[in-house]
Structures are given as C-alpha cells and as structure tokens.
Design brief:
It is built from 9 helices and 11 strands. It has one domain: Aldolase class I (TIM Barrel, Alpha-Beta Barrel), CATH 3.20.20. By secondary structure, the protein is an alpha/beta fold. 30% of the residues lie in helices and 21% in strands.
Amino acid sequence: MDASQKSLCITNVQRYSLHDGGGIRTVVFCKGCPFKCPWCCNPENLSFKPEVSWKERLCIGCSVRADGRRDQNGCPCDTPPDQCPTGAKELMGVERSVQSLVDEAMRDLEFYEESGGGVTASGGEALAGAARQAAVTEMLAACKQRGTHTAIESTLALPLDDPEALVAACDVFLIDFKIADRERSLEVTGIDPDVRDANLKRVLELGAKVVARMPIIPGYTDSPENVRANAERARELGISRADILPFHQLGEGKYDSLGMDYTCEGIPQLTDVDVEFAVKICEEAGLEVVVHGE
C-alpha cells in the first residue's frame, strides 16, 4: 500500500445491513475502541491490534501443538488463519486503503439507490483518533460524491479534528446515548457525556442530522430515570429522533473465540414489548422513535 494513501484497520465490510442508517447499507467496521461497554456486541473491534479468532466447533485438530499448549482463546495450533482448512481461525483486523473500501462499497450502488441506503462507518469507535477521523471522512466523502448516502455510528465522545469536513461528508450521525449520569458513565464505559454533548452542539451548529441511539441494557441503561434523562438531553440539544435498541446476545459467542470474558453472559434478550416503556418516555419527551433503528 502506498504510504501516502489513507487506510483503516477493519474487521469486516458488511453488505446488506438494514439497521445502520436507513435502506440497504454497507457497514465498514473499524477495529479499535477506547471505551469499555460491558455489553459490547463487537468485541473483535475493541483492541486496536489485529488478533486471531478461533471457533472450536469448526476445528478438526489437523495440526495441534505437540506439547498441548493452547492460546488464551483455546486455539491448539500455530497454523496461520489464511491456511486454516476449515476457517476455524480468522484474522480480525486487516489494513485496507480508503480507495479499496470505497471501490468495494460502490459495488452495491444500485441497491443504495433503490432502497435509500448507503455506506456507514462503524466500529469499534469510528472516530478514534485524528488519523482515523481523516480516513473515515475521506471514505464517506468519496462515497457521497458518487451520490451515496453516508452515516457514522459513534459515541462522539472524543476530540474532533475537523468537524466541518466530517459534517460535509456525513449525511447522518448515529450517536450513542447510553448512561446519562456522567460519573456512572465514566466508571462503567469510560464515555464522557459532556464531551459528546459539546461535540454534538458543534456538529448540529454546522447543520448535521443526528439520531440519538439508546441501547436498553438490563442493569445498565434500562431504568426509566436513565431513559428519561437521555431523552430530555437529546431534545435539549435539538435532536428530534431516537432509535431504541433492545439488548441482544448476538455477540456472546465472539468473546469465547477471542479468549475474552463476557460480563453480560446469561442476561435475557429484550423483546419489543420489553422496551415499550422506553418508547413511551422518549415520545413524551417529544422524540420520534424507531425501535431497532433504520
């Protein structure tokens, strides 16, 4: 890769996504996040470094180590992921040029045009650091120049290097509203809501469209008081829509494959009925509500 080209370390380019900004979308998952949400459903995107995932159910034990040694995730061999015959081993984290990501995303341009979809940058934290922000901005700007709708999923709780360029490249910001109490948020997730809100004020002043995303997590964000505080704060900032995201366990198996502990194991998934109280609170605060997001 040309050293002058901007690049992103990614774990996945997910095509045909339906809940990350509207319509049929391609979501680019950036690897690495400075925060620590216990319920994270993408643990492969927490570390900024490439790592190997190992799925025991796919392993046929074709090249186990003679000494029986296993990695932290239980993997018993030194076979490189790209040579694993069953796909039990997978490298999580590949450096890709921005241009190659744009080229891949544009393969589905027809689907975006027909469905009102587009391209979304996600993570991890899509805006973690100035270099990543510059690369994500360039990627979305290039897609937008091709007539494609663009979106970012982010905490927005980091310093913004060039908010003007970011807003110009991004049609909608999908921003996390998790734990409203600042002290508790810093303790549990490391996210500072004050930093997020300062950035939100700035991008909203620049004309950004923002959707508040509220994950409803049992024991963390599901109290009526927390939902109400988030809803009222979103309205104070001038945000008009909230996406209510019921807790799910889709990421549970990923923790084992990476050798990581999962503190939300066993917590029951929530149904749409379970989050009706949150919908009502947000609507009472004057927000348009979409369960699961668009």
